[in-house]
Amino acid sequence: MYIGVDLGGTGIKAGLVDEKGNILHKDSCPTRAMEDYKVIVADMADLIKKVLNDTDTNTSEIKTIGIGCPGSIDDKNGVVIYANNLNLHDAPLAEELKKYYDVPVYVSNDANCAALGEFFALDDENITDIVAITLGTGVGSGIIINKKIFTGTNGIGGELGHTVIKANGEKCTCGRNGCWEAYASATALIREAEKAAKENPDSYLAKLVAENGGKANGRIPFAATEKGDEAGKKVIDKYILDVAEGIVNIINTFQPHAIVIGGGVSNAGDALLKPIEEYSKEHCYGGIFQTKISIAKLGNDAGIIGAAFLGK
């Protein structure tokens, strides 16, 4: 059995995972994000202890512990180089957690862990290369090549959300302009929906935004489109085009067996997926389209399962 830990800016989740990728039990606790890394690891250790105690599992039964953490990670040494929403700078998480548990400990970027979890969830021996995309507050991404996480030469490769799709375009949180994240994230979708609602006050989109306290969310423009609302449709059409442009770039670069799309926006299902597939078939280099595009299966559990399998 394995332990997977998903360390986030607001919460820590830990789960006991079996050989087949099933979470047998999981629990969570708040992240004391601005505390020293030793405090965060101590909380992590206590949470793992609780998961083990609740399942009557002995530490000797645990093969490895894996930690998924946002930010730049030195995965060879288990060190968080920098995480902007946690007080972690050159923090040796693996070394510190080994003080509590005498088992191998691995650390990787949280998006990479989610990608690894989704890779195992595909459960197909013929699939060796996938790219997992998370359309959330930002655009997270993880790349699996030959069944292994790709991180580049310095451990921080794979930031597909920060490839530019429009030169001199929208400002991105990374400081550049025109990044894919600035167009394909849920944040971008919400921005455009609220803008369209103001410009089209008589639209059904504007009605839904008003009913939601004047704020849009990722569901509202899709809901407006389903009702035949033209303002909502324009927002969705533009958004899907921007997402699809990035997807085509990924296919042209990696030609993976599969691309898995997760995050809150992925709840739109076929309304998001089908147009992306159609655009990809039409625009992939040389007309070669053999990548399977699907919605992620594991939801919020992907990070735990992927982290658990970091040492597998």
- Given the C-alpha coordinates, what overall shape results? globular
Distance between the termini: 11 Å
The mean pLDDT is 94
Q: Find the CATH superfamily of the domain at 2-118 and 301-308.
A: ATPase, nucleotide binding domain
Rg on CA atoms, Å:
20 Å
Organism: Qingrenia yutianensis
Family: Belongs to the ROK (NagC/XylR) family.
Protein name: ROK family protein
InterPro entries: ATPase_NBD (IPR043129), ROK (IPR000600), ROK_cs (IPR049874)
Description:
- There is one protein chain.
- With 312 residues, the chain is of the alpha/beta class.
- The chain has a domain at 2-118 and 301-308: 2-Layer Sandwich (Nucleotidyltransferase, domain 5), CATH 3.30.420.
- 37% of the residues lie in helices and 22% in strands.
- The protein contains 10 helices and 13 strands.
- It has helices at 37-54, 93-97, 110-122, 181-184, 186-199, 204-211, 220-226, 230-254, 270-283, 302-308, and strands spanning 2-7, 11-17, 23-30, 64-69, 72-74, 79-83, 88-91, 105-109, 130-135, 139-145, 148-149, 258-262, 292-295.
- It has a 5-stranded mixed β-sheet with strand order 3-2-1-4-8. The chain has a 5-stranded mixed β-sheet with strand order 11-10-9-12-13, sandwiched between helices. Strands 5-6-7 form a 3-stranded antiparallel β-sheet.
- A hairpin with a 2-residue loop joins β10 and β11 (148-149).
- α5 (186-199) crosses α6.
- The N and C termini lie close together (11 Å).
- The model has no long low-confidence stretch (mean pLDDT 94).
